[in-house]
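User: Design a sequence. Structure:
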């Protein structure tokens, strides 16, 4: 009997991994974007590897008026770029590695904390959600946020069960590292704070050791050392940007307390199929009921987990409303693990397996069409940009020329790094012939999908 169960479990995980991998890895080389963000950190990595110049700054929060996070994402990518000799195809391997680690670590952690059915169902929903099949294949900072959420749950579970120094140190590492991946992780830190407040209020037997909390805090703060060094060198510029971002009102800025709701509606599109603010509000309030039900039905760790999840669910709209500006859809990625776990755990708790199966089937269907779109080649991906630049390299070898761009705003990003990667020399003398990269292509251009390359007659 046990052997049969093991075979069924392995088969279920293999089937779900096949779906997960197909939607993320099929055509990945032709889907992978290489735009402003990717070009920026590629140059930072190039400086690290070639010139041993380590940047102290990572991603900037929101806009050119935001503050900076630490550069651990860049450091994380550097070894992969080193292995590929600075070829940006390193991002393909990075995406593959992140998704592989996420799937199997999540399978293990959720099975350990919640149970086998929750683990299988959670991963099935994750495998099928079209927003996630899109986000999981973009080589940028938010791609690591879901992994950070799952790792946080694991460390909180370990603290609840064991409450050792090791668990508290690990929590500090997880929060410090992932906080510097993307600013939305501040909500996960808020969740941790709520978790310990709820734990203190509901479980008098749990002993809080302030030495352990202090160690966790010190480990967390240690991850901001690059930013501290930067500020010491630059008259506390980043701290000034931080305070200005939160406490100085931007001149002429329009403040809208409800703008986040439109984005939230887009975010949950993969769950409710129809983009409707009314349905988004309905989903939000139904979710409150589901989380509250789980809080009342559960005991021990799970009771605290769902109480803090409920508090987070009630809190994040207030935070976005106070912010008053339109966040991007990916600022809600941190919510996906919470949404999937409370939906799945609700069906398991009421012991209605057929409802869970029905929901999963419908979920697969409503995401299928958009997943088909997601797996199509992106005509402006790294793959096609690389082909275009390689053609320029081949056709202009040994000749004097310059390169310019005739593209829509922002569509010229990515090419410059590839030009430098292929060591294509430009003279800087604008009297020399001019090679143009043009989007859309014009009649006499060499075409690479919708990328046009104009090679002047004197170079042909």
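Assistant: Done.
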């Amino acid at each position: 009997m046990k052997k049969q169960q093991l075979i069924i479990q392995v088969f279920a995980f293999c089937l779900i991994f096949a779906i997960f991998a197909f939607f993320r890895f099929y055509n990945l080389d032709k889907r992978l974007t290489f735009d402003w963000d990717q070009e920026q950190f590629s140059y930072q990595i190039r400086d690290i590897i070639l010139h041993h110049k380590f940047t102290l700054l990572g991603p900037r929060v929101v806009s050119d008026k935001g503050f900076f996070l630490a550069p651990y994402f860049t450091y994380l990518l550097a070894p992969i770029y080193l292995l590929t000799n600075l070829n940006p195809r390193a991002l393909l391997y990075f995406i593959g590695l992140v998704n592989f680690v996420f799937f199997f670590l999540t399978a293990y952690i959720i099975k350990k904390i919640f149970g086998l059915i929750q683990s299988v169902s959670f991963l099935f929903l994750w495998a099928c959600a079209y927003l996630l099949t899109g986000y999981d294949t973009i080589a940028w900072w938010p791609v690591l946020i879901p992994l950070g959420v799952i790792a946080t749950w694991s460390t909180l579970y370990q603290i609840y069960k064991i409450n050792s120094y090791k668990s508290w140190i690990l929590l500090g590492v997880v929060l410090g590292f992932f906080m510097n991946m993307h600013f939305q992780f501040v909500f996960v830190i808020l969740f941790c704070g709520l978790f310990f407040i709820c734990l203190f209020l509901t479980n008098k037997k749990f002993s809080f050791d302030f030495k352990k909390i202090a160690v966790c805090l010190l480990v967390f703060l240690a991850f901001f050392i690059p930013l501290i060094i930067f500020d010491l060198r630059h008259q506390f510029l980043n701290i000034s940007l931080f305070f200005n971002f939160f406490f100085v009102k931007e001149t002429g800025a329009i403040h809208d307390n409800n703008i986040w709701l439109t984005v939230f509606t887009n975010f949950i599109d993969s769950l409710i199929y129809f983009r409707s603010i009314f349905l988004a509000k309905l989903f939000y309030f139904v979710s409150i009921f589901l989380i509250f039900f789980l809080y009342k039905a559960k005991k021990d760790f799970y009771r605290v987990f769902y109480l803090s999840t409920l508090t987070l669910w009630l809190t994040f709209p207030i935070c976005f409303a106070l912010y008053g500006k339109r966040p991007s859809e990916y600022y809600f990625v941190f919510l996906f693990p919470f949404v999937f776990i409370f939906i799945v755990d609700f069906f398991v708790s009421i012991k209605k397996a057929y409802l869970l199966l029905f929901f999963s089937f419908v979920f697969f269907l409503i995401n299928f069409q958009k997943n088909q779109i997601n797996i199509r080649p992106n005509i402006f991906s790294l793959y096609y940009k690389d082909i275009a630049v390689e053609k320029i390299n081949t056709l202009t070898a040994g000749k004097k020329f310059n390169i310019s761009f005739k593209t829509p705003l922002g569509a010229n990003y990515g090419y410059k790094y590839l030009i430098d990667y292929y060591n294509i020399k430009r003279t800087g003398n604008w009297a020399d012939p001019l090679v143009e990269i043009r989007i859309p292509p014009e009649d006499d251009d060499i075409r690479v999908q919708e990328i046009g390359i104009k090679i002047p007659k004197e170079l042909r």
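Residues 382-459 form one domain. Residues 165 and 212 are 6 Å apart (CA to CA).
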